[in-house]
Design goal:
Layout (H helix, E strand, L loop, with lengths): L2 H32 L6 H24 L4 H28 L4 H24 L1 H6 L21 H48 L1
Helix pairs in contact: 1-4, 1-6, 2-3, 2-6, 3-4
């Protein structure tokens, strides 16, 4: 592998991926401190899970598939969809609560890091990247094929364990809290309505 490509690949694997996980857990911590289950609630939490699923799928695809034109287009589409969810997430949050400076700072990283990852993959496959614009000698390869060799199993295991511990489980817990609070509020309203109906008789 070209030395510069090796540097980019190492940065993606050992700097970019941990930063992405860190941004996610910091965002979760902000939501936990602000107790969003009592404001924007389940609507915002479900959007967090959607964005997490999009980034997780894109990360696994980039990890296991060759950077062909087909994969690059798929990743670009995924990041654009992530941005649309991000914009909707902000709209839902701002309608129900304030977004403090620290959370805005974290959001900035969450918005830029996926694009930085795609840029790194484009740099690792310049021929296929140029082919998307009709430039260079290579024809675009639209197939999705496994990398050869695949990433080391130890790295994959560490990646999945870190994502589960620092991102998946915390955001699932957030959704559970939001759903529980929503259910409790609904039951409280039903009880209040039932009491009012009983007293009116």
């Amino acid at each position: 592998m070209d030395p510069s490509a090796a540097v980019v690949q190492a940065l993606l694997a050992y700097v970019w991926v941990p930063l992405l996980m860190l941004a996610g857990v910091l965002d979760w911590a902000c939501h936990r401190q602000l107790r969003i289950e009592h404001s924007s609630g389940l609507a915002e939490s479900l959007l967090h899970l959607a964005m997490l699923a999009l980034l997780g799928a894109a990360l696994l695809a980039a990890l296991y598939l060759r950077p062909t034109a087909g994969l690059l287009c798929l990743l670009l589409a995924t990041v654009v969809l992530h941005d649309l969810c991000y914009a909707l997430d902000l709209r839902v949050a701002l309608a129900a609560r304030e977004i403090p400076a620290l959370e805005q700072w974290v959001h900035g990283f969450q918005h830029l890091l996926p694009w930085a990852g795609v840029a790194g993959l484009l740099a690792l496959s310049p021929g296929q990247a140029r082919s998307l614009l009709g430039l260079g000698p290579e024809a675009p390869d639209w197939a999705l094929r496994w990398r050869d060799p695949l990433p080391p199993p130890s790295y994959t295991a560490a990646l999945l364990a870190g994502a589960l511990l620092f991102n998946v489980l915390p955001f699932l817990g957030e959704a559970r809290r939001c759903a529980g609070t929503r259910l409790a509020i609904g039951k409280g309203r039903d009880a209040t309505g039932a009491d009012a109906s009983h007293h009116s008789q």
